[in-house]
Amino acid sequence: MSPTTQMKSTQPMAKKPQLQLGSQGKAVLELEQLLTKLQLYRHPAKGIFNKAVEFSVKLFQFRVFLSPDGIVGPLTWQALYTAAPVNMPVLKFGSSGEAVATVQEVLKVSQHYGGKIDGDFATLTDKAVRAFQKSFGIQADGIVNQETWTALSQIPRGYDPNWFLT
Q1: What is the 3-state secondary structure of the chain?
Q2: In this predicted structure, what is the pLDDT of residue 36?
Q3: Does residue 41 contact residue 30 with C-beta atoms inside 8 Å?
Q4: At residue 13, does pLDDT exceed 70?
Q5: Would you place residue 3 in the very low, low, confident or very high pLDDT band (cuts 50, 70, 90)?
Q6: pLDDT digits (tens, 9 = 90+) for 35-47
């Protein structure tokens, strides 16, 4: 699936219920189907939000830079339908903070960044973003916008499975 591929909704997201461990019904069945399309869930869809569904939701949330709490609320639904991160800040040279540190971590995993994870969008981060963008066929302008966040979400990142099980 390319970073710009989007999944189409057949129902308005405004009517989507919050789902979590123990939820049941059509919405859970739809969730399982979306997770299956994203290759994050490989069990038969039964419409029951069990530990396997919760784990898949947490993996997806981690992938798209949402807090991996296993609860499917409006942002997770939106990210599931677009198969992309949502509500991410636009970052550029001079930006700082946790989102910049996240970008640096992903760029380090993708071997585009060799600097410190310090949350400061300085020269090394700018060069790494541009190189990353070029490798993904994105305009190499050094600005981390929706298209770049989506590409970043395609980079497999390490995680501690035990952390997700808590």
Answers
A1: CCCCCCCCCCCCHHHCCCECCCCECHHHHHHHHHHHHCCCCCCCCCCECCHHHHHHHHHHHHHCCCCCCCCECHHHHHHHHHCCCCCCCCECCCCECHHHHHHHHHHHHCCCCCCCCCCECCHHHHHHHHHHHHHCCCCCCCCECHHHHHHHHCCCCCCCHHHHCC
A2: 96
A3: no
A4: no
A5: very low
A6: 999 999 999 999 9
What are the structure tokens assigned to 59, written together?
């993996």
Nearby residues of 127 by Cβ (< 8 Å), 6 or more positions away: none
Q: Over the stretch 84-97, which tens digit does the pLDDT of each residue have?
A: 999 999 999 999 99
Q: Which residue has the tokens 């808590």?
A: 166
